[in-house]
Amino acid sequence: MDPRLLRQAGAARGYLAVTIGLGLAGTGLILLQAGLLSRALADAARGTGVEALSGTLIVLGVVLAGRAVAAAGGETAALRAAAAVKSGLRRRLSAHALRLGPAWLGGQKAGEITTLATRGLDGLDDYFARYLPQLVLAVVVPLAVLVRIAFADWISAVIIAVTLPLIPLFAVLIGWHTRAQTRRQWRLLALLGGHFLDVVAGLPTLKLFGRARVQEEVLKEVASAHRKATMSTLRVAFLSALALELVAALATALVAVEIGLRLLAGHVGYQTALLVLLLTPEAYLPLRNAGAQFHASTEGAAAAQRAFEILDTPLPGQARDPDAGSASVDLSCDHITLQAVTLSYPGRERPALDQVSLTIRPGEQIVVTGPSGAGKSSLLSLLLGFAAPTGGTITAGHIDQTQIPADRWLSQIAWVPQHPHLFTTTIADNIALGQTGARRQDIVTAARLAGADEFIGRLPQGYDTVLAEGARSLSAGQRQKIALARAFLRRVPVLLLDEPTAHLDPVSADRVLAALEDQLADRTVILITHQPPPRDGRATRVLALDQGRLSPVLAPDEARVQPALRAGLAVAP
pTM to 2 decimals? Predict the structure, then answer.
């Protein structure tokens, strides 16, 4: 048993208690059934009439009905327990992955995480609904049966007590091999799911470059490896079931032979012999079932191991503990200060940011330029809290960023990434993503300011048009306009822009620039751009990043520096 999986059972403790309680009730009914049946058969053998046996038979029928009810109720409660655990684990996994942020998610295979959160965690049904309750019954039921048989015939009880440990012994020996096989099977399933998703997402590119056939062969190889691993796991499971059944059958036959010989010799009564024969299989059955359910539950347990690895991944920046502390800042009036901040990524010799110091005053409009790989996106990741500095500090109003709850920090920042993600829902919902309960009038106004209203009006259902997966029906420029509309709709004090006009034509870019100058005059803006602005630009400050180091582009000149963004947002000729 994995202790971490057991801790997840807290949300389903009530259901598991009902399952185990009904299982124990079923154990009592088994003992009662064996006693009633042996008595009825013994009385019938002595010539007792049906009328005299009617009372025993009625009670026996009630016991059988009770066992059926207990089994059905236990199965229902067990499935509800598994559903509660899976739901809780999925919520924790999703929330943790979101708090880890895009910096972590960018280094993962989306298909693998999707497979883990869906098909993988579904495998926990067998663990919590069947294996875990059966494990408890495998301890209680054989002990109860053994005690009952000991009162009837101690010789048979000794034989059962000696042979019972053979079943868990064989189960453990085979189980070690099964666990290794199942982990390999799960890794191949995750690889297959992740690679298949990547191939489907990049199918147009693969077709364009004539590489679709190659990826088809790769998928065949991965699928074949997964098939072989699955068949190998099933082979081990079948052999395990055969071994356990063989041990249980031989042990039962041993008890039957010795009780039969003693019955013929007159050393034991007929009713006692029947009771022992009826109860002996019940002593081995829970152990055999536990072994079988172990094989069925290993896939879910292997997937849970990967889920726990993700949950154990430390959170970056202020997201390290989103519920800790109650520090509060107001970014509309508090300075944001980066003091000798360094950011290094594992496996890279040179830091992405090296001793960067910057003070961002409320209402400033700062343009950051630099070539690809200079550290511009890393700077935005630090400001968003998606990454934690490996050196130096980030403060807001003299409060360390790590002491500010993530939700409180991000609620004051709007971010327009270079490649925004649009969800499979209506355009209106995509624009209102960060502004719950936004009015349709405000959504339309924001879209008009971003230059998106024109093309939205040409769509069949306008703002109620449902976008396809990845919004592939829209151009890159149209997707960028919707992302800008999101930012215009959110009235937050800080706006981070990553190449907002990179995918726009010159006319659209000019319209967006005019809207930005009109709407963002009272907001703090950090703009990322590859193109250096002209010397007569109107940004408050223009900074350059090169190999992780930050330096001013324009010397201080109060007569030439004016608060506007057009210089930083100028479209390259």
Answer: 0.59
